[in-house]
Specification:
The protein is mainly alpha-helical. Helix content is about 85%, strand content about 0%. α1 packs across α3 (about 115-125).
Length: about 170
């Protein structure tokens, strides 16, 4: 063998080793890059899991607050309605006691006659008022006693008689 053949063999072997070394270096570089990328991916996935857990907790907390707020809104509404129902019943009962008919009250208030009766009955049930409305109406329909002043001022005036007849009509 000649020295040129040996030199060519050494050069070819060296070149092969260099190429394999370069390949290994490239493979190691890729593996390091893949390892770094994979670590970031796994870290991001863990971050997503943490965010999902926080979201779930926040939603549960918000739902609890929502449920409490809705419950409070319903309670406030029920209380306001109960208060207004009591006031309506009281006032309708007072008007009924002064001789207003159920039909007149319904017309004045834009309620149905059955609603007027319901409010008056509910008021009586709450207060235990057992005086019949007709008896109270009859008492309020009686003409007031005439005094000397009223006779002197309105002797020829028929307003007192008209008012009494209006009350008796309203009581019926």
């Amino acid at each position: 063998m000649s020295s040129s053949t040996t030199a060519k063999k050494v050069t070819a072997r060296t070149k092969a080793r260099q190429k394999i070394a370069a390949q290994r270096e490239e493979q190691a570089r890729r593996q390091k890059a893949d390892e770094a990328d994979l670590a970031e991916i796994l870290k991001s996935l863990e971050s997503q899991d943490g965010a999902a857990a926080k979201r779930s907790d926040a939603m549960a907390q918000a739902k609890a607050h929502y449920d409490k707020a809705v419950e409070k809104a319903h309670a406030d509404y029920a209380e306001a309605v109960a208060d207004s129902e009591a006031a309506i019943g009281h006032r309708l009962s007072d008007m009924r006691g002064r001789g207003q008919s159920v039909g007149d009250l319904a017309e004045l208030t834009d309620l149905t006659e059955s609603d007027v009766r319901r409010h008056v009955k509910a008021h009586k049930d709450r207060t235990g008022d057992t005086a019949p409305a007709a008896e109270v109406a009859a008492q309020s329909a009686a003409p007031p006693p005439a005094s000397e002043d009223s006779e002197a001022l309105g002797a020829g005036d028929d307003r007192g008689g008209a008012a009494a007849s209006e009350l008796s009509v309203a009581a019926s």
